[in-house]
Amino acid sequence: MASLTTRPRDAQTIPVSLDVNGKIYELDIEPHELLLDVVRDRLGLTGAKRSCDMEVCGACTLLVDGRPVSSCTLPAFEARGKRVETIEGLADKGRLHPLQESFIEHGGFQCGFCTPGMILAAKSLLEENPDPSEADIKHYMHGNICRCTGYKKIIESIRAAAAKMRSARSRS
Amino acid sequence: MLRRFRLEEPETIPEASELLGRHGETARIYAGGTELLLVMKEGLAHYERLVNIKKIPNLDRVKRDDGVISIGALVTHRRLSVDDVLNKQLPAFVAMEKNVANIRVREVGTIGGNLCFAEPHADPGTLLLALGAKLVAAKAAGSREIPVEKFFVDAYETALEDDELLAEIRVPVMPSHSAAAYLKFGYLERPSVGVALFLSLDGGAVREARVAVGCAGPTPRRIEAAEEILRGKSVDEASRRMDEAGRLAAGASDAIGDLHGSKEYKEHIVGVLLKRAFAQAVEQCR
């Protein structure tokens, strides 16, 4: 785990400016420290989960400059100068993001372990494709695994959020 | 858990090559890290130093010059899957890239890293074999071109020398009346079998065919015996002989039983995919 106290005196550190959910953190990071550990253990943002630990399941998904990454296998220094989004940053002044609302309204989760990753991956999907078909959603989300729902409700949630976001955009 | 390593960040190819030469087997090139960091986290490999080559300029471009598409080693799978030049010139390559691993791996992983890691259960090497690509290896002293056939030496082993890095992938543009197809099948995260076919038609006859099989054995390979069955035949006759071509391809694929299926199972899949790839390529040639 990333811990300042276990660092040997001659360890190489990289000064990194991290923008996480719009807040800037100045950190000294060792090359081997993973983004997931830095975000969870140093910043206390525990929404992203360590699960398969091999880039397969998507529970550790974070967005870096708006694009999804497996933070379990991405060294934290790779996020230097970039914008990191975690699930904790999605709500806007206490108001849930349309994806969060839709996942609640449509029962897009049961145990909730995969949900932060699902919602962040879906956010990047909707940014590049505001009106995805069911096939588009399945293709894009196939690397985010849910062991409870069977995916039907997740797909419904994403389509509903997409519709909501499109109509909000056409109103504004 | 990832153990400590030192990070080097050279800004030129000679500088990177010098570092690799100086540190030998204790150093390894790091680009996307989507394969390398997995085995390091598992403790299956450890390197004292990783040489991040992402600060070297101009290795992240796709360009077309003189009948060749040049793909920089640092271009990510994601960029390849949405690149306009490739989409127009090599649609089969784009289709393959769209289905590499998952969206997060495509976002971070690079084409060069994929080839250099030489993981047997990977997609791009197989299609590049059928497309007749050449790989440009560079070091401080200069560069050389390696045909894909000569690049993959064994599982996780390539023809690159210690102080060389892959700089560029050069793929000839598709001639007219030609098409390529890459089909794969698997039930785990990685494919069990991948089959690639390049086909060029002349009227109703097969002018040129290149067949490659990957994932089944330690390295992707060209299957010339299967190509010979198709070459010079009418499309109808070649279609009728697909079972035979499939059997030859399966036999020469060097399939081994592993987590992704038994030898016999993989050999069967090779035949099925080759038949489908042929039908798809013929359709697209027209």
What's the topology here?
The complex is a heterodimer of chains A (172) and B (286).
Chain A lengths: L13 E7 L2 E7 L5 H8 L18 E4 L2 E4 L12 E3 L12 H8 L9 H14 L5 H8 L10 H20 L1
Parallel strand pairs in A: 1-5
Antiparallel strand pairs in A: 1-2, 3-4, 3-5
Chain B lengths: L5 E3 L4 H11 L3 E4 L5 H6 L7 E4 L9 E4 L2 E5 L4 H5 L2 H6 L1 H8 L4 H6 L2 H7 L6 H8 L2 E6 L2 E6 H4 E3 L2 E2 L6 E8 L5 E8 L7 E10 L2 E10 L6 E2 L1 H7 L4 H6 L1 H11 L10 H23 L1
Parallel strand pairs in B: 1-3, 2-3
Antiparallel strand pairs in B: 4-5, 5-10, 6-7, 6-10, 8-9, 11-12, 12-13, 13-14
Helix pairs in contact in B: 10-12, 12-13
Distance between the termini of chain B: 52 Å
Total helical segments of chain A:
5
Largest sheet strand order of chain A: 2-1-5-3-4
In whole angstroms, the N-to-C terminal distance of chain A is 45 Å
How many domains make up the coordinates of chain B?
Answer: 3
Order of helices and strands of chain B: EHEHEEEHHHHHHEEHEEEEEEEHHHH
| Number of DSSP E strands of chain B | 14
**Biggest pleated sheet of chain B:** 5 strands, antiparallel
Number of domains of chain A: 2
CATH topology of the largest domain in chain B: Uridine Diphospho-n-acetylenolpyruvylglucosamine Reductase, domain 3
The top level CATH class name of the largest domain in chain B = Alpha Beta
How many β-strands of chain A, per DSSP? 5
Order of helices and strands of chain A: EEHEEEHHHH
Summed over residues and divided by their number, the pLDDT of chain B gives a mean of 97
Quick check: average pLDDT of chain A?
95
Query: At the fourth CATH level, what is the homologous superfamily of the largest domain in chain A?
Result: Beta-grasp domain
Reading off the top of the CATH hierarchy, the class of the largest domain in chain A is best stated as: Alpha Beta
Name the shape of chain A in a single word: globular
Q: Which two chains form the greatest contact, residue counts included?
A: A-B, 30 and 22 residues
Fraction of residues of chain B in helices?
Answer: 25-40%
